[in-house]
Amino acid sequence: MLPVITLIGRPNVGKSTLFNRLTRTRDALVADFPGLTRDRQYGIGRVGPGPYIIVDTGGIGTAAEGVEALMERQVQRAIEEADHLLFLVDAKDGATPEDIEIVQRLRRLGKPIALVVNKSDTTDPNLAVADFHGLGLGDPWAISASQGLGVNKLIEHVFGQL
Ligand code: GDP
Ligand code: MG
């Protein structure tokens, strides 16, 4: 069985962009508006050590529904079958109240989680990362899914935790 790595995070943080980067496909829809990934999407990870299964999650509607949607069956199942979670946040936004709520739920699962600060190309990566230490998930990993920065190192780290 290949290890299963699952992407979690509120809408628009770049989960599908990272999925496409890791699978070297355009299978996941990427949009400027949230909620486009309706369901779980599976792919074979080809970046970094591997191979592995990568799972994109979605089905999350408006921001207000985001945390509730985490409990939705599809996302819940995706989380259950994961060997490792990548929790994505947006460097531009800082840690939002929704991020904090999602972290509280994820932590209870007792699964390995990496905190991934995406879109670090849009701001000073050091500043971006500093704001996210408070989430209590350890050192954040600054990446740019769209530019491919930090992605290899992140997957190497994940494999070290499996
Ligand atoms: P999802 O809803 O979490 O799946 O997010 P998407 O992958 O659909 O991305 C949402 C928006 O963020 C799109 O406009 C992407 O092009 C943009 N985006 C994703 N990753 C990056 C990144 O690393 N840097 C920048 N600047 N934009 C990004
Ligand atoms: Mg998506």
Automatic annotation (TrEMBL):
UniProt keyword Repeat, yes or no: yes
An annotated GO BP: ribosome biogenesis
Domain EngA-type G: 3-162
GO molecular function: GTP binding; ribosome binding
Function: GTPase that plays an essential role in the late steps of ribosome biogenesis.
Residues of the full protein shown: 1 to 162 of 463
Keywords: GTP-binding, Nucleotide-binding, Repeat, Ribosome biogenesis
Protein's UniProt keywords contain GTP-binding: yes
Gene name as annotated: der
Protein name: GTPase Der
Recorded family membership: Belongs to the TRAFAC class TrmE-Era-EngA-EngB-Septin-like GTPase superfamily. EngA (Der) GTPase family.
Binding residues annotated for GTP 1, in chain numbering: 9-16, 56-60, 118-121
Quaternary structure annotation from Swiss-Prot or TrEMBL: Associates with the 50S ribosomal subunit.
